[in-house]
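Give me the fold.
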Amino acid sequence: DRLDVALAVDADGLHVGGDDLPWRTARRLLGSHRILGCSTYGRPELVSAALHPEVKADYLGSGAIFTTPTKASQAKGMEHLPLLRKQVASEGPVP
């Protein structure tokens, strides 16, 4: 979530959520040589945004699969993953 810290410690990458720093800004400041992960919460419009040529997310988070005490969000299970996989394949693979 903290681009400034990632850059200060020369981290290999950064993970940002939908409510964090805009993904295009994060990619531009991180550069293409660092890993960028984006939380899409399994939402197709966020998957498209993460795959945009100006973002090119290296990996996507799709939300909680299983219930966990560390997250307040509802677990989605695995049923939504085939649709997301199909979307990623049709819009261009994650690098």
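The two ends are 21 Å apart (CA to CA).
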